[in-house]
Every structure is written in structure tokens, then in C-alpha cells.
Write a structure and sequence with these properties.
Blueprint (H helix, E strand, L loop, with lengths): L1 E7 L2 E8 L5 E6 L10 H4 L7 E6 L18 H14 L5 E6 L1 H10 L6 E7 L30 H12 L7 H8 L5 H10 L6 H6 L5 E6 L7 H5 L12 E3 L5 H4 L1 H14 L11 E4 L2 E4 L1
Parallel strand pairs: 3-4, 3-5, 5-6, 6-7, 7-8
Antiparallel strand pairs: 1-2, 2-4, 9-10
Helix pairs in contact: 2-3, 4-5
């Protein structure tokens, strides 16, 4: 796994990269206040051998630089970042996997109908109409206010991370440090833009996509209402419905085996849309076999 950086628009963007794109590329986008470091369980999985894995730090997150414009942290700008990143790295045969805010960015990008994208997989991301109709998508949680606060005290950051993972463990101190790196402009700017409805209609974006879109939720998520996902009636969902996994808002970290399997299955199911050489991938006992 290599750590690199590239200048996109006005700021240097840090990203992680691993593997060759024999079967295609998976681009991971992290959630609000976190970074590419949260995808270690995916980068270390043998299931994704044969894929080029990339995870970037959004503007003002992780080791990426902040924007000069303090009001630029909104979904259209983040989507512009991803589009330029794809262009600069000449990515194609690409599935975007977005968590939470990263999922909303992926859906914002989906609305732009980029031809190089062959699939979108989101989790912890209830698709929103514009204007917003999905009032039951989110659970009341006092820590939710931290998503839009300019700064967090250490105690607030610990509480926020604890709610994200369902409980506090000492090893989560690393996540607290990542949260502490977030630009003081990023969270309030995002909150203000959502209040102004400055985002694409994500439901329409899914229904008009040229491929099925995977929407996944976690059964023990303390921010997102899993029952809301069960009742989704959006057309063009992968396998005709949303999917539920065990775990917290960070199910891809606390239950990586189940998460990695369903992500790989989605990629496989894209068939000719994803595999340029029409190879078939079979997973047996965590070993990838290519035919």
C-alpha cells in the first residue's frame, strides 16, 4: 500500500493506493471527519486481489489540504474533487464505494453521469430526495450535532467516535486523532449547504443510473434508521432492495469479512459493465479464483 498526493484544483490531496487494475478499480470515499485510513480492512483483504484499490482524503480531512474557500465544503464541490481525481489518475472500469458522507458524494457524482463509473456502492447513506422527504432516515442522537460543529473537544470527539462504533475501545484513540485533523470549516460549511438544499436529488440519480446501485445499512447504526432502508421503494436498487449488515455505522471496520464479501458480490454482479475481459471471479474460503 502506497501513500501519495496529487494537486486537485486548489489543494493537495492525499490518497492510498494498492494493486493493479487487472479486474478494475475500486475508489473508496470516507465519511464526515474521518479519512482514508478507515479502509485498512479492505486494503488488507485477499478478496480484492486483482483490483486497484484507491482511497483518498477529502478536502480538509486526514492529510489533505484545506480549501481556500471556507464555504466550499459541500456535496457539489466534493463531487467535483472526485471527478477531477478520476480524470487526473485516468481511472476507468471503476466502482465507487462511499461511506456515509462519502456515499452522498458518490450519489452526487452519479447524478453527473460520468461514463467511467461502472457501479456505485454506498453504506450508512440514506438516499435523499430534494427537497428532503426522508424524515425517518436518521435517528435522534445528540452526537449528531458534532457532524456540523467547527471544533470538538477531546471529550466530544471521544463521544462522537463511540457513537459511530457503538462503544468505546482504547484502540479507537486513533479515530479520535483523525477526527481532530478535520478543518474547522468543513463541518459547518457542509451543514449550511445541506440546509440550503445544495445537493442533487439522490433518489432520481439512482433511478436514472445505467447500472443497479447498492444501498447498504448496518443493523446497529446509532445515526441511521435501519428500518427506513427496509422500506425503500427506489427503483434500480441492486437485487431490488437495500441490504442490511450486522455492525455499527462503521460496519466495514468492525465486521470487515461480511462487508468485503457483499462489496465483492456487488462488483461481480455488474458483469460486463465492470469486467473488461469478461472473466468470472469465484470466492472460495476467502481465496479469489479467476476464470
Amino acid at each position: 500500500m502506497n501513500k501519495k498526493s496529487i494537486k486537485i484544483l486548489t489543494a493537495n490531496i492525499s490518497y492510498l493506493e494498492k494493486g493493479e487494475a487487472e479486474l478494475g478499480t475500486i475508489l473508496f470515499i470516507h465519511g464526515n471527519s474521518f479519512s482514508s485510513e478507515t479502509f485498512s480492512e479492505q486494503f488488507n483483504s485477499s478478496l480484492f486481489e486483482g483490483y486497484r484499490l484507491i482511497a483518498l482524503d477529502l478536502y480538509g480531512h486526514g492529510d489533505s489540504e484545506s480549501l481556500l474557500n471556507p464555504f466550499g465544503y459541500h456535496l457539489p464541490q466534493y463531487a467535483k474533487l472526485i471527478a477531477e481525481f478520476i480524470k487526473e489518475l485516468e481511472l476507468s472500469n471503476l466502482v465507487i464505494a462511499g461511506h456515509s458522507l462519502g456515499g452522498h458524494i458518490a450519489l452526487e457524482l452519479l447524478a453527473q453521469k460520468l461514463e467511467k463509473i461502472s457501479g456505485v456502492f454506498v453504506w450508512g447513506t440514506p438516499p435523499l430526495s430534494n427537497p428532503i422527504k426522508e424524515v425517518g432516515a436518521f435517528l435522534p442522537n445528540p452526537a449528531g450535532a458534532y457532524l456540523y460543529a467547527p471544533t470538538l473537544t477531546e471529550e466530544e470527539a471521544i463521544e462522537f467516535v463511540s457513537q459511530c462504533f457503538g462503544e468505546w475501545k482504547d484502540e479507537l484513540n486513533t479515530m479520535v486523532k483523525i477526527v481532530g485533523k478535520t478543518s474547522t470549516d468543513a463541518r459547518p460549511s457542509l451543514g449550511a449547504s445541506i440546509g440550503q438544499l445544495n445537493f442533487a436529488d439522490e433518489v432520481k440519480a439512482i433511478e436514472q443510473a445505467p447500472f443497479p446501485v447498492a444501498v447498504v445499512c448496518a443493523s446497529e447504526d446509532r445515526f441511521i434508521n435501519a428500518d427506513h432502508f427496509h422500506n425503500l421503494t427506489i427503483q434500480n436498487l441492486w437485487e431490488g432492495s437495500s441490504h442490511r449488515l450486522i455492525g455499527s455505522h462503521f460496519c466495514y471496520m468492525d465486521h470487515p469479512e461480511e462487508f468485503n464479501q457483499i462489496l465483492l458480490q456487488y462488483i461481480q454482479d455488474q458483469g460486463e459493465l465492470f469486467f473488461s475481459n469478461h472473466n468470472k471471479v469465484i470466492v472460495e474460503n476467502d481465496i479469489v479464483r479467476i476464470f
